[in-house]
């Protein structure tokens, strides 16, 4: 009898632990603001949409062949691709968008598809095709264009919330929108355990990379230079690039002023006993910085900015920047101004 009582007590304890674990899991799931839809749920939405369409027998057979078993578990990206393939069968305008997204390289000017902005189109069609197009643009490194389509979409209203949140975060990370990127990554990781490993890993890397980013730091300046280079390589020179160049120059000037103030303070009596200034740059390093002196003044706009400094002063400024910086920062700054000199961007 005693053994039976002990056995029963153990079972009760195990049951209580299991119940608490399930409750905790349920609460964790409830805290997530979005979920990956099931294949059956997406097919149900699709069937509701198709009920209002005039499909012939051949089209219905193609749709059924695409979806097969509704209990088959699919990644959310596979759900989006399968939905897109279905829409290409029943909606000619959707087929145009999907065919374009199958191209390998973006044209100089990416097209705007009226379907993607048509409020009369069913959200299942419009929003998920916006996601498909925005995903393709992001994969082509067209960050601004991608966010134009992805920025207003909500994870709860598309069949592939994972790709939506991931590529939103990618664009925000690339454009140094730190707070927005961190918020998007946090939302993506609400369902961390259900994410494919590649998304989970890259999301955490983006978070770790952008969290320590500080305004007006060398890190920020180098990233802004890299973004200018990206835009120029994609033939996206224009107002945005000019504004970025001006911001880079302003941040560099601010950094130079701070370095000069620090040196002046170090050389004042009572602050190190009139310590000697930092050792001058080696001749080999100074020679590597000469490309920046070729920048066209008109490229950078305002008269008080970088381009209007006399060549000798520019050289001195570059030496001042490079004297105390790690090599990779000097190389980034040098490459940036070389590119400006070569491209002559207006």
What is this structure's SSE topology?
Elements: H1 2-31, H2 39-50, H3 57-67, H4 76-90, H5 92-101, H6 123-139, H7 143-150, H8 161-174, H9 178-188, H10 197-210, H11 218-233, H12 239-267, H13 283-288, H14 311-323, H15 327-343
Helix pairs in contact: 3-4, 4-5, 4-6, 5-6, 6-7, 6-8, 7-8, 8-9, 8-10, 9-10, 11-12, 11-15
Rg (CA only): 28 Å
Instruction: Report the total helices.
Output: 15
In which range does the helix fraction lie? 55-70%
Low-confidence stretches: 8-14, 21-25, 277-308
- The arrangement of helices and strands along the chain is HHHHHHHHHHHHHHH
Task: Please describe what this structure looks like.
The chain folds into two domains: 39-210, Serine Threonine Protein Phosphatase 5, Tetratricopeptide repeat (Alpha Horseshoe), CATH 1.25.40; 218-269 and 279-343, no CATH class. The chain has helices at residues 2-31, 39-50, 57-67, 76-90, 92-101, 123-139, 143-150, 161-174, 178-188, 197-210, 218-233, 239-267, 283-288, 311-323, 327-343. It contains 15 helices and no strands. Helix content is 64%, strand content 0%.
